[in-house]
Amino acid sequence: MRWEELFKTVAVIVAAGQGSRMGTKVNKQYLNLMDKPILVHTLEVFEKHPLIDGIIVVSRQDEVNFCYQEIVKPYHFNKVLEVVVGGKERQDSVFEGLKALPVQCELVVVHDGARPLIAQNIISEAIALAQEKEAAIVAVPVKDTIKRVISGAVRETIPRGEIWAVQTPQVFNRELLLKAYQFAYEQGICGTDDASLIELIGKDVRVVLGSYENIKITTPEDLDIGNAILARRLK
């Protein structure tokens, strides 16, 4: 394989959050899920995935060395190309990851470090759709009735069939995503996810059906659910 054919599809794993909702001093990505840190479970999925050529991990500045010495090195994550310092907001952290991508990278797979239960087949489907359509996200239909509430009063009931809960991974053509980020920064816009920036430049974002097990672990209750899901998978 020629050098220019390497690292065509690279995952950017975002692990730079504060984890304030978890109520612990330890960053949520480093809390144990069963016998290993959450981030280890997440990285294992991408390390083992045959379509992922490389991984960029985005960490808090004060945790970069810890991430490398306690996560990447001892667990032998050979696909990790670099651990980079994140930014103030999630958008800034992803952008730092984008700047660290190898020059030959064509597809970027952005994933939350705190989503350790993602299935490999869903990653594969998102990559395949992004290869065809340039932008693909993972999402699930909401189960609950959704209402718009203002000042404690219901103002509108939103048709549930139109509402999907968006997850990660989100997969994009690299140049398209960089264009969207450049536009967002020029306009002073901070999006809640990467797909929202793609929408800003008028590009369609396609959807892959995700899994209700692909939770983002942000609260103690999420940790309990994650442990239960893993325990069931191991039976």
Name of the CATH superfamily: Spore Coat Polysaccharide Biosynthesis Protein SpsA, Chain A
Give the strand order, joined by hyphens, for the main sheet: 5-4-1-6-10-7-11
Instruction: Report the top-level CATH class.
Output: Alpha Beta
* Mean of all residue-level pLDDT scores: 94
Summarize the structure.
By secondary structure, this protein is of the alpha/beta class. It has helices spanning 38-48, 64-72, 90-99, 120-133, 174-187, 194-200, 220-233, and strands at residues 9-15, 32-33, 36-37, 54-59, 80-85, 107-112, 135-141, 146-150, 153-158, 164-173, 206-209.
Offer a few descriptive terms:
alpha/beta, two-stranded antiparallel ribbon, single chain, 235 residues, Spore Coat Polysaccharide Biosynthesis Protein SpsA, Chain A
Architecture blueprint of SSEs:
Elements lengths: L8 E7 L16 E2 L2 E2 H11 L5 E6 L4 H9 L7 E6 L4 H10 L7 E6 L7 H14 L1 E7 L4 E5 L2 E6 L5 E10 H14 L6 H7 L5 E4 L10 H14 L2
Parallel strand pairs: 1-4, 1-6, 4-5, 7-11
Antiparallel strand pairs: 2-3, 6-10, 7-10, 8-9
Description:
With 235 residues, the protein is of the alpha/beta class. It has a single domain (3-233), classed as Spore Coat Polysaccharide Biosynthesis Protein SpsA, Chain A (Alpha-Beta Complex). Helix content is 34%, strand content 26%. It contains seven helices and eleven strands. The protein has a seven-stranded mixed beta sheet, sandwiched between helices. Helix 2 (64-72) links the parallel strand 4 (54-59) and strand 5 (80-85). Helix 5 (174-187) packs across helix 6. The mean pLDDT is 94.
